[in-house]
Every structure is written in structure tokens, then in C-alpha cells.
Amino acid sequence: MPGRNFLFVPGPTNIPERIRRAMDVPLEDHRRSDYPSITLPLFEDLKKVFRTRTGKVFIFPSSGTGGWEAAITNTLSPGDKVLQARFGQFSLLWADLCVRLGLDTQIEDVEWGEGVPLDRYRAILAADKSHAIKAVLVTHNETATGVTSDVHGVRRILDDLKHPALLYVDGVSSIGCLDFRMEEWGVDLAVAGSQKGFMLPTGLGIVGVSQKALEARKTAQMRRCYFDFDDQLRMNEGGWFPYTPAMTLIHGLRESLNMLFEEGLENVYARHHRYAEATRRAVAAWGLKLCARDPACYSDTVSAILVPEGFDSTAVVNTAYQRYNLSLGLGLNKVAGKVFRIGHLGDLNELMILSAIAGTEMVLRDVGIMVDAGSGTAAAQEYLRATHPASQGAEGLRKTA
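The chain above was modelled as a monomer; its predicted structure follows.
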């Protein structure tokens, strides 16, 4: 098919040309004497994205799932009790990982479309007088349903109850896109992946670790080797890795951080919110609804959109790809066939998000969901025009024309 693919899944995301060029380097010696001049500043700059001053950030050649496993195995012991809410495919998979690693996993099932149940977490933790719960897990941004949960709210519960459990956060589709404050929110383990907000190919699991979590590793008895924090600490101190790093991705990560800092993290968060809101306005104009039930928990990185009764969302995704070379996200597990997803994260501008909305509008009509032609596109266009940083000057330009 002529032209390029329009990638609007919630990860992997589009790779900016600057990052692509930064990775296009000959392979090199990762033991050469000047290699730490690349890695030491990288470790420090990653801390700025995670927003931690006292913690450490480790880089593993893995996906985000490897980051989950690293966080768990370095800080817990077999049979430890953990609390996890399950409200989407990725919170489900993290809970499954805990079960398979031999942890006593208390799973709180929540309707898909809702987020972490703060009231239930408070009640459970308040009843845990012996502090048997060693870990509380939060999926910050559930990409299966387009729901963002209140991480800081969970920390406030732990602090109010003076509960010593470690707070673990899956930030794979939030860190680098959404407001995330590891130190301020008291997050002990935070997991990110290279293929979302960092705008890289899949292949790096990035884990933020608090000082409290580093202390916990000293008594943790779960077996680990490849994901051992001790090996990372020992080698990272001098700017090295305990095994062969993903060199091209490291160069790409350096350029990714440069781009994030040039734009400014607050501006990155605002940009994601703006394009998410444009998408939500398009959905409303189509007369459709989001899977996320509460506007307070709408995700700014992905919108999961319900199709009307009697339609199959898989047909929307397949038609988009086959007819228009537009990649949308499938519905997963409990919402398979019920939702399709528009990812609006990473390297993105106004015309890119409008292309996804316009393409989706055509697809909806193609499969028989007869939304008004142009309705969603127009709603998004008007919102983007009105909220553009230059919009305040537009009236003055008209007056002088």
C-alpha cells in the first residue's frame, strides 16, 4: 500500500526522526574507556523524568514485563502477601506474574472501566493490623480500558494508616507522558518501557527504585540473576552495565531525553492532555462512549472507545488497517470485540491526531456505525484551534489583515 502506516496503538509509538538518526550508529565497544561519559549523565537524567532525587533508575534490556519482574523479585520473598487491583489486561498480567512467582496475591477485581478502588484499598490495609501485606501494586495507566488511577491517593492511604508496605507502580504507558512524581508520591518501585513515552523501539525496561526499596532488597529472598539490582548497582556506579547493553537503544534514549527536556516535561504532559481531549470530543460528537466511566480517570495517553451493541470492534480495527493503513488498538480480554483504542501518546502533533480521528470516522461508517461524516473531525479541529498556544494572537492577526 502506498504511503506510510498511521500508527495509533497505545504502544509502540511513533519514533521521531531525531531518535531514529541517533540510533543509526555502527555497533561499538561497550567496555571502552569513555563509555561512562554516555551512561552516567543518562542515569541522572532518567531520574528527572521519574522525578526522584534520592532514588536510582536501572535500565534492563527487556520489555516492561521484565521491569515488573525486576521490581518484584528484588524486594520480596516467596510467600509474601501483595495487594493488586485487577481492572484491565495489564493489571491482570502483573497480578498473574505475582502468582506465578509464588507470592500470596490478594486480587481485588474491579469493573473494567474503573480504576484502583481507593476505599477498598483503605479498608483492606486498615484491617491488616499485622502488616502482612508487603507490597501494594498500582497500574497507573491501564491501556486496555483507557483508565488512569490515583497513585498519590494510594500513598496517602498508606501514610494515614502508617502501613509500611512498599508501593509499586506500573508506569509503562504513563511515565514520560503523564504527570508522574515518584518521590513526592512516595512510589518505591516504578516501571517504564522504552516503546511508549520515551518514543523508542521496544527493548528497554526502565525501573525507578526508592531508597526504601533498595533497603528491602537486602532481606528479599526471591531468586534473581539477570534482573538483580545488586549487579546493576555495582556496575552502574562506574557507568557500566553487568551485561551487554542494547547500545543503539541507549543512544536513542539519550536523544529521547534531550527532546523531552527541550519541550519541558510540563509541556509534554499538557500536550498529551490536549490531544486526548480532542479525541474525547470527537468520540462525543460521534455519539459514542468511552470504556472509562469517570471523567476524573480518563487517560491522556489512550482512549478505549465502546462500539454500539451489535457491532464488533475487531471489525473496526481490521478495516482501519486493511483499507486505510491505520493501526488502532484491539479490545483485549474482557473488552475484546467491545472496544477499539486510539493511542495518543509519544511523538504527536495536531495533524497527526486529526489523521487518526478522520480515518476512524471513515472506518466507523464503513462498518455500519453511521456517525455523521465530519462530526468528530470538526469537534477535534475546533478544540485544537481554540486551545492552540497561538490562538490568543489569532484575533489580532485578523484585525490587521
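DSSP finds 14 helices and 14 strands in the chain.
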